[in-house]
Amino acid sequence: MEQQLKIKKVLNNNVIIAAHPSYEEVVLIGKGIGFNKSMGEEVSFDKADKTFLLSNEQEKEQYVNLLPHIDEALIDFMNDILHHIEARMGQELNQHIHVALTDHIAFAINRAKKEMQFTNPFLFEIESLYPKEYQVATEVVTMIYDQLGIHFPEGETGFIALHIHSAVTDKTLREINRHNQLITRLVGIVEDTMDIEIDKKSVDYHRLVQHLHRAIDRVYQGESAGDEIRLAEMLKQEYPVCYNLAWKLIKVMQKQLNKPVDESEAIYLTIHLQRLTHKS
Question: Of 122-126, 231-235, 251-255, which has the strongest mean pLDDT?
Answer without folding.
Answer: 251-255
